Each structure stands twice: as structure tokens, then as C-alpha cells.
Amino acid sequence: MKTFRQMQKKKTNAEPIVMLTAYDYPSARLAEEAGVDIILVGDSLGMVVLGYESTVPVTVDDMIHHAKAVKRGAPETLIVVDMPFMSYHGSHEETNRHARQIMQQTGAHAVKLEGGAEISTTVRALVSAGVPVVGHLGLTPQSVGVLGGYRVQGKTAVEAKTLLEDAHALEDAGACAVVVECVPAEVAEVLAKDLEVPVIGIGAGKATDGQVLVYHDVLSYSPHSAPSFVKSYDNSYERMGDALQVYVNETRSRQFPEHTFSMPEEEKKAWQQ
Ligand code: KIV
Ligand code: NA
């Protein structure tokens, strides 16, 4: 069983932490078999699996439904589940109820929340209730409407300073790790050096304590092109499309099926009389 303590040790030993999203049984199983350290059931679910245009429509129930399947596929891996849009912006009571539903129903090890200093009291309330919390700074897709698009964050000196303050606020509130998305490599490097807890980057350069990518981006398992910082290790959408085309063609030409069942000869005779 992997733990956040082990992730902390990896940071101390300068061993990169590998995080990958997964959303269902086979993706989780492949991630666990590949040896990833942390599986994130990201609310990117909304875009890469459910076909929404942003993560905003994703619900707590959506997250739970998919996280349960991930847990079945990866029983030995650390699992973090995103709290979706506005599920942690009401009362602490409501936030805690959503976190409890996620933790109890899915068997996840932690939840992840987007935001900095403005959510630090929420993070503190969750941690004091026994819920491990991962933070998420930089590009925070749930706020795409406020940010005005999916763009690099922390490019100015003022923004970089705010990012560092936010990261410290999360750490002080008890976050066990912080994801930092789409920020200049220099800023992410300082962040990783400054914080005690692991800083896991996505589009944040090489110097973070670990990397996280979206499953469908790593495999190019999507009809849409991935962000520029992604490295794709396969062209699975294209390959799967080709395979399906062969199935369609072979069925139309009766080349498929090849394997068939038949009756024993004597039964066939008896049946035909
Ligand atoms: O939802 C997600 O996949 C994420 C990662 C991009 C960090 O939050
Ligand atoms: Na997310």
C-alpha cells in the first residue's frame, strides 16, 4: 500500500513522483500495472470521458461513480479524487458531507481542491476532520470562466508572488501535496523548493517533485488535440478507430465471424428428422 508519507520520502530523496489520471476499471488497472504512484480521478472526467466542454458540469455523484470503478481496478494504489465545481464552496458542513461521501463510498485516500488562500479554512476543516487534502494551483480549470480561458498562470512577478503565498497557505492549512498546473518552470521550481510537501506539476517544467498527466492525453485517446505541454506516448484513438473499421468491413463482407459453434452430428440428424 502506498501512502502520502512515502510520497514525502520520495520528495526528500529527490525521486520523481508519478501521477496519472484514470476514470474507470481498465484505465486504473493499466495505471497500477505500470506502477504509477498516485492515481487521480480528475474532474477532467467531464471533458475526456463525458464529452462536456469544461469541468463545470461534473457532479459529486459523477466523481463517486467513476472513482468506485477506479478503486476496483487499482486496489493497491494511492487514489485522489477531485471535488468537483462548487462542491466545496458552501458551508464547511456541506463540504465535509461531500468529502465524506467521496471518501466512504469510493475508498479514495484523499480529495483534491482547486484554489489558494481563499480556500485555506476549508482545507483546514477537512484535514481536521481526517480527510487528506491535495491542493491545486496555477491554472484551475473549474474557474475557467473567471480566468478567461485555459492559459498559463503566474507569468508576472505579482502573479508568481501570489502563487507562492497561496501554496504556503495550503501547506499551512494541512494539504499533503499540491498540484500546480500551467505555470512557468522557474515559478514551479521555486514552489517545489519552498514547500515541504510534494509539488506535482502539469505543464510546470522538470523541477517539480513529480508529474501528473491526463490518461487520455498520454495515450492520445481523444478526438481532440492535447495541450502543448503534453507528451503523447501512443496514438490510441487513431489505432482504435482503424481496428473498429476492420470489424465493420469484415462483418459486411462476412469474413467475420471465423469461430462458430456446431451441434454434435447425431444431434443434428435427430433434430433435422
Ligand atoms: O482533473 C484533472 O485531470 C486534473 C489534473 C489535470 C491535475 O486536475
Ligand atoms: Na481536476
From TrEMBL:
EC primary class: transferase
User: Carries keyword Iron?
Assistant: no
Q: EC number(s) per UniProt? A: 2.1.2.11
**What cofactor is needed?**
Mg(2+)
Major localisation: cytoplasm
- Active-site residues annotated for this sequence: E181 (proton acceptor)
**Gene Ontology MF terms:** 3-methyl-2-oxobutanoate hydroxymethyltransferase activity; magnesium ion binding; methyltransferase activity
What pathway is this protein said to act in by its record?
Cofactor biosynthesis; (R)-pantothenate biosynthesis; (R)-pantoate from 3-methyl-2-oxobutanoate: step 1/2
Give me the residues that bind 3-methyl-2-oxobutanoate, please.
D43, S44, D82, K112
**UniProt record, GO biological process:** methylation; pantothenate biosynthetic process
Cofactor stoichiometry and binding remark: Binds 1 Mg(2+) ion per subunit.
Ordered alphabetically, the record's keywords are: Cytoplasm, Magnesium, Metal-binding, Methyltransferase, Pantothenate biosynthesis, Transferase
Q: Which reaction does it catalyse?
A: (6R)-5,10-methylene-5,6,7,8-tetrahydrofolate + 3-methyl-2-oxobutanoate + H2O = 2-dehydropantoate + (6S)-5,6,7,8-tetrahydrofolate
GO CC annotations on file: cytoplasm
Cytoplasm listed as a keyword: yes
Q: Where does Mg(2+) bind?
A: D43, D82, E114
- The chain's coiled-coil residues are none
Compartments in which it is found: Cytoplasm
Q: Which InterPro entries match?
A: Pantoate_hydroxy_MeTrfase, Pyrv/PenolPyrv_kinase-like_dom, Pyrv_kinase-like_dom_sf
Q: Which SUPFAM superfamilies match?
A: Phosphoenolpyruvate/pyruvate domain
Query: What role does it play?
Result: Catalyzes the reversible reaction in which hydroxymethyl group from 5,10-methylenetetrahydrofolate is transferred onto alpha-ketoisovalerate to form ketopantoate.
On assembly, the entry states: Homodecamer; pentamer of dimers.
The similarity comment for this entry is: Belongs to the PanB family.
Q: What is this protein called?
A: 3-methyl-2-oxobutanoate hydroxymethyltransferase
Organism lineage reads as: Bacteria, Bacillati, Bacillota, Bacilli, Bacillales
